[in-house]
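During the reporting period the student researcher (J.K.) took over the structure-prediction task from the postdoctoral fellow and processed the backlog of single-chain submissions. One of the processed entries is reproduced below for the supervisory committee.
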Amino acid sequence: MISLKLAALAAVVASTSAFTVLPATQSAAVRPAPSVTFMSDEDVSPSDSSSEDLYVSDDSGAINVDSEPYEPTASESAVTSVLDELPVDVTSLDVDSETRAKINEALLKLEALNPTEEPATSPLLNGVWSLRYAGGYSSDWALASPTRQIALFLYSGGYSPGLFALSLAQKLPAALVEVGDLEISISREQPRIEAKVDLKLLGGSSNEVVVNARLDVDSDIRLTETYEKATVIGQSVDLPSQVQYSRDIYVTYVDEDILVVRDASGVPEILMRKSKDFFMSGPEPDEVDDISAPY
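J.K. obtained the following structure tokens:
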């Protein structure tokens, strides 16, 4: 009997020896890790926008990014053409015929691209400007005469307030006065135009020549300038209505940077905006008091 029990126990032990008992710290079953596919592992054909075309590394290790060349608009090209032809001396009225012809050709192209509807009433007129070019008159057909410019001045209705202020300043003794730059301000309140030339007097003190003029709207492109007052080194003279003279001007181009006007005889003046702070931040021009249209 005992021998039979021992034989049965031996058979049980022999049958369990075929199994392996895993330690408690190990998992009873090991699952295979999930397969992860990376884009670099795939066989992808190169596209038209391959990174190799956009980024180029030079010998120093720096990466250069290729970009499309900038193509200026027709208006930007016309502006550049005009500015390239402008003389250095903005006060000179005796521009040679070749330069005058090039400026007029460039201006005609620019004026055809005027982006502003009804420019005479546009708030873009208002602001601070510097005079870059005053066309004057061609001398090809005329005899030399010391009174020629005076006659043309009267015929066209007078120079602009800016040139008038500059001429007053230049009549002061050069040994005693240093003439500065001309600045033209256009505001919403009459007299809307203030042309100012800064002066530095002998001894270091500062003063100015100022000409004030009304600016009245006659149509969507035509304005009338009327002189009202002139101030020279603190001495102010109000012009009586009987001797006030005026001239018509036509706004042929205006944007955020450039203003082009012509007088009744077609002579152009080009002004560049001196300050653009109100375009960089804050409200739009027609919402700012000092640069708003008159209506």
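The committee noted the following: Helices lie at 2-16, 51-54, 74-85, 97-111, 148-156, 161-170, 277-280.
J.K. will present the remaining backlog at the next meeting.
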